[in-house]
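Side project, low priority. Logging it here so it doesn't get lost.
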Amino acid sequence: MKVEIWSDVVCPFCYIGKRRFEEALNRFEFKDQIEVVWKSFLLNPDQITRTDISVKEYLAESKGWTLEYTTEMQDYVVKMAADAGLHYDFDKAVVANSTDAHRFIQFAKKQGKGDEAEEALFNAYFTDGKNIADHAILAELGESLGFEKSEMLEMLSTDAYTAEIQNDIYEARQIGVKGVPYFVFNDRYAVSGAQPADTFLGALNKAFSEMAQ
């Protein structure tokens, strides 16, 4: 059974949703019969990568929030991530356009390593504070997954896999995706947001049971 997941690697709730879904999948009796397919979604396709400003300052500036309120929001998300077993460090995070990171994911998907690419990018952005718009950093992440560094740099120097990203975004629009993460189970049931593991497990059971029938 196929589970499609639309996400953006700069979306804090997407990484949390990934962990909660994985918890549900580990509890699912037929997990070896589930194919997880990652789909690209750009929360801000026109985002300008900025290394001169913190994520906190950027959020406050772009959303019209006070720094105090922004800190409260980030603290809430950090705790939410910690509850899912993740360590977020927004002080180190780099404001970055995620388009090239998604091209990296699409490349990795072709090699059967889409999930590994998602994990590497989420960790690079939220935990390690790496600039995921930097081709050298993306090439290093690719190398850690077993890809040739030179091949990664060559791919990133072109517009390869842009069409795949646009296809995913078009498909998201067609099915009414308004935000991410967004999970679709066997083309029948959808779960929006970083829901509790029990919610994902319920969707897995329901969709799989109907497919079996």
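Brief comment: Residues 1 and 208 are 7 Å apart (CA to CA).
Revisit when time allows.
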